[in-house]
Amino acid sequence: MPTTFTNILVATDLSARSDRAVARACRIAREQGARLHLLHVVDDALPADMAEAQMVAAERTLERVAASLPEAAGLEIARQVVAGDPWSVIVDTAETLPADLLVLGTARPDRMAGLFRGTTLDRVARSARCPVLRVAAPVTGAYRAPVVGVDFSDCARLAARLASRLVPKAPLTLVHVYHVPFAALTGLSGGRGAPKWEKDRVEADLSRRLNDLAKTAVMPGQASATILVEGSPEIVLPRQMEALGADLLCLGTHARSWLSEALLGSTAQAMLSDCPCDLLLAPLPVD
């Protein structure tokens, strides 16, 4: 995996909230020395005259955005307005570039609310072959507290490497939330839980695997920490993020099962629309 990005694509619906995604993409492009591509999609289901008027207005707005954002100063920015189905155009454009990173914002609830939320975000993240960054928070600086949710899969390892690559100067925290039916694991009968020594043995093994993952996935010289917590992932992970002051959560996706329950259960799907911070989704590469 390369250590820096070359092309970053940011798709915007031109709302104020989506400007956060543009600002974050600008900042990342500057940090990575990457070229930035700014995309707006006009729904081709609109009447032809209305779609044409929106495309003209969008081109002017993109030009204004590129000229007015402080984060965009001095960057090489390519602008593009396309008519089509938003999610498919975004995915196709990312593939054509090809983009190393696809950045999306969240739309205002009362305007184009489905563009970057719910079904459309699901479709983009499912279909894109590059990492997808969903930006929700205002940009106040570089990411300071990135967290990676891991499950020891190849995809989780790639997610950790991606987070390290994106935020190489911040300490990276790898969190594994587990829930083990110890009675079934150890073959004990009668529905009894495992004895403390057995639970300690299992946790020691998980800790070893978590530390090995950190050693192989985190870039040399970058500070890292590992956290192993027993409990329900959908409850424990948000609590850990709050305790750590996380401003970026990175999760891996699985090639055969979109955000499989083998990763973080129902929490992962919920994070798509309700993550308390920015969310980075790392797909497995397609051979």
Describe this structure in words.
The protein is an alpha/beta fold and 287 residues long. The chain folds into 2 domains: 7-135, HUPs (Rossmann fold); 146-282, HUPs (Rossmann fold, 3-Layer(aba) Sandwich). 41% of the residues lie in helices and 21% in strands. It has helices at 18-32, 48-68, 86-96, 118-127, 154-166, 182-186, 196-217, 233-244, 266-274; strands at 7-11, 35-43, 77-84, 101-105, 132-135, 146-149, 172-178, 224-230, 248-252, 278-282. The chain has a 10-stranded mixed β-sheet with strand order 3-2-1-4-5-10-9-6-7-8, with helices on both faces. Helix 1 links the parallel strand 1 (7-11) and strand 2 (35-43). Helix 3 (86-96) runs parallel beside helix 4 (118-127) and helix 5 (154-166) packs across helix 7. The longest helix has 22 residues, at 196-217. The protein is elongated, with a radius of gyration of 20 Å.
